[in-house]
């Protein structure tokens, strides 16, 4: 009986572990490149602003208003940021996470203007600036401190790769959130199912001055 009980408990653990992992993205398989994601942000060079620019690149992208922005110099440099990946034809995780992030900005209140949200599309062939604009209006998140960025496939593959997302198909992107204080090279990841207040608190900590700097 003890042996049967042990086998049963082991099977339950394996099933629970599989379900937890599969919800990191849109049900991506266990051998997807997501496993490499945590190391990608940590691998950012530590030699200062110049190295950060080299790492993230100044790849030109377009925002939801059709403006061309250099990824590092115009979207990241000297900002506290929250990055995530979406695609507008997604009908499950992406709109839910967008609404969660809208709640985060509401919790931040008057401090929200000090944090830039950057949503990068994993489906650049469909998500043109006009499509992204329609998505922001539908979700009620169109504003100057929330960028929705797209480009051609090569541009997006490069930028997404630099934040640890090597994505064979749009659905296989990670749903994890990346938060960072770019100037001070402080980065971390947050699960999107964390409470809005907890995400907001992490961002508020990143806006505070670093001791000794």
General description of the model:
- The chain is α/β, with parallel strands linked by helices and 213 residues long.
- The protein has one domain: Glutaredoxin.
- The protein has 8 helices and 7 strands.
- The chain has helices at residues 2-22, 37-42, 49-56, 71-76, 93-108, 129-139, 153-162, 196-207, and strands spanning 60-62, 68-70, 80-86, 115-121, 146-149, 177-181, 186-190.
- The strands form 2 sheets. Strands 5-4-3-6-7 form a 5-stranded mixed sheet. It has a two-stranded antiparallel ribbon with strand order 1-2.
- The longest helix has 21 residues, at 2-22.
- The protein is globular, with a radius of gyration of 18 Å.
- The N and C termini lie far apart (62 Å).
What would you call the structural class?
A: alpha/beta
Number of strands: 7
CATH topology call: Glutaredoxin
Helix-strand string:
HHHEEHEHEHEHEEH
Mean pLDDT: 83
Taking the alpha carbons of the first and last residues, their distance comes to 62 Å
How many domains comprise the coordinates? Answer: 1
CATH architecture: 3-Layer(aba) Sandwich
List the quaternary state of the chains: single chain
CATH superfamily assignment? Answer: Glutaredoxin
Rg calculated over all Cα atoms:
18 Å
The percentage of residues in β strands lies in: 15-25%
For the record, the CATH class is Alpha Beta
**Count of DSSP-assigned helices:** 8
Percent helix range: 40-55%
Q: Which sheet architecture does the biggest sheet show?
A: 5 strands, mixed
